[in-house]
Fold:
Amino acid sequence: MDSNTNYVKMTPEELASEEKKMKTQKFATGVFIGVLVGIAVWAATHGSLILTGILLVAAVIIGRKSSQSIKSREEAMGRNNTVG
Structure:
């Protein structure tokens, strides 16, 4: 969702839909990070420490950016306006 969304004017159904999208995004990001970590472990066991380091740093960066994005959306939505 773009950063210009006004969550205050959304209906409860729209807020519920937005919450569902955020949960889906969290899940997809978690799966992607898991794949990166899995490849990093495989690379480490096969002697490629440089690839392992790059993948682990990428996983941390992606996780941090995703977490910040979701946190800012939750703050914009206002925890008192959430449904469910």
Q: What stands out?
A: The chain has a mean pLDDT of 84.
